[in-house]
Amino acid sequence: MYKRIKVSNVLSKTGLYDLDYAYNPYAGCYHGCRYCYGRAYTRYGEVAEAWGEIIYVKENAMQILMEEVRRVRRGVVGVSTITDPYQPIEAEERLTRRGLEILLGSGFEVSIQTKSPLVLRDLDILSRHRDRVDVGITITTLNPTVARLIEPRAPEPAARAEALKRLSMEGVNTWIFLGPIMRGVNDSPEAIEGIVALAAETGSRLYYDFFRMKRGLAASMSPVKERYPEAMSMEHGWRMRVVEIVGKLCEREGVPYEPAFPARERGSSLLEYL
Ligand code: SF4
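Above: inputs. Below: predicted complex with iron/sulfur cluster.
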């Protein structure tokens, strides 16, 4: 269900590494990923409780953004941080597209993170401003069955991979977010290898991160846990073994890589695994 709301600000300061601001034109996210932290951080109670079912459209976002860019110091804007800026409603509302036009037209840098090939609609803007834009695509797994379980309504992995290739071909600076890595779900060398190969093919940096427990996730993750009992494990030894696998594969393929936190280079958000 979509609800239209009015907001008093849409460009928020963020403490996220390497981002100065976040631009979230929607609250909530249709993709409804089972591991999504967004529900723990949104200020809207019903959006958090019915994550993926209720989405707010900030209908005055453009007007507010235009006022805000006149006031604030230039910097790097994360698009978005607690929602997917290219979830399906964006095809009609175009709040992300129009936001990009305003931000880039006003001299800001933009770091986009999404799971959707809808980002390709905006290739004209992205390639025109490629010196101030980077685009990250979250790919947790290339296995469509696993993806359907953990990210029930997000675009399938093959579509994300194609989007990444196209962006890269157009000269846009790209990166892959491999996260969250979950024990027994997407942590095997074979699973990671395919994603590293995609990073190599597209010249993308790879950021990785692990599942983290947040408010609301116990219930949301239960279908995943049923199929993969260790999915919510945060055991240190296991994580270190996976870090080693990621490192070996990336070094073999010549892919730059690093943990998503704390030392991230550019863009993507702390809260988002788009
Ligand atoms: S992880 Fe990203 S795409 Fe998935 S529900 Fe959360 S905001 Fe949406």
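Residues 29, 31-33, 36, 38, 83-84, 115, 151, 154, 272-274 surround iron/sulfur cluster (CB under 6 Å).
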